[in-house]
Amino acid sequence: MGFQASKPFEYLHIDTTFVPTDQRGKLRVAFVKDNYSRSILLGKVLPDASSTPIRDLLKETFEKYGLIPPDEKIHVVSDRGSENKGDVNEYLARLGKQVIKLTAKQAEFPQSNSMVESTMHQFKNVFLKSRSTLDDRHLTQQIVAFMHWNDHLREKQKASHYSETFCFYSSFHFALPISTPYTRQ
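Above: the chain sequence. Below: its structure as tokens.
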């Protein structure tokens, strides 16, 4: 078990993973998760493995939640992947000394990034049931459905009917048409 933040947005965890699709091969997915609330703040399919999409994801997260300019310290926790360097470091540096980037499992921050890593595991192996999805549009729908489940239904489903309810919810969202209230046209 990791550490617990004392307030929202004190520690933001970011990580990426690859998800197989039938039409586009493996696509990279990223989530930004708040340590305090355990909520997924933003999740996206990324266009490439560079640091630019991660920078854009963080920028969108900071803007969406009114974190610019930061009033209090915000720690962004990531792994040592190259996608978390370059443009990401430059963007966070421009935000000022209130934003601190931490790399998990290093001298400066010996804790792991397990909170978001376990979220990735749940998304791929439990929610998607280790199956591929059709394409990036369907994968985006799956991300939105997973975020809703993680943030609003997961805790309610820890009762004895957890597996049955979760499987129903996951299967329901696999059947979503391309156009849903969750997607932008």
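The chain has five helices and five strands.
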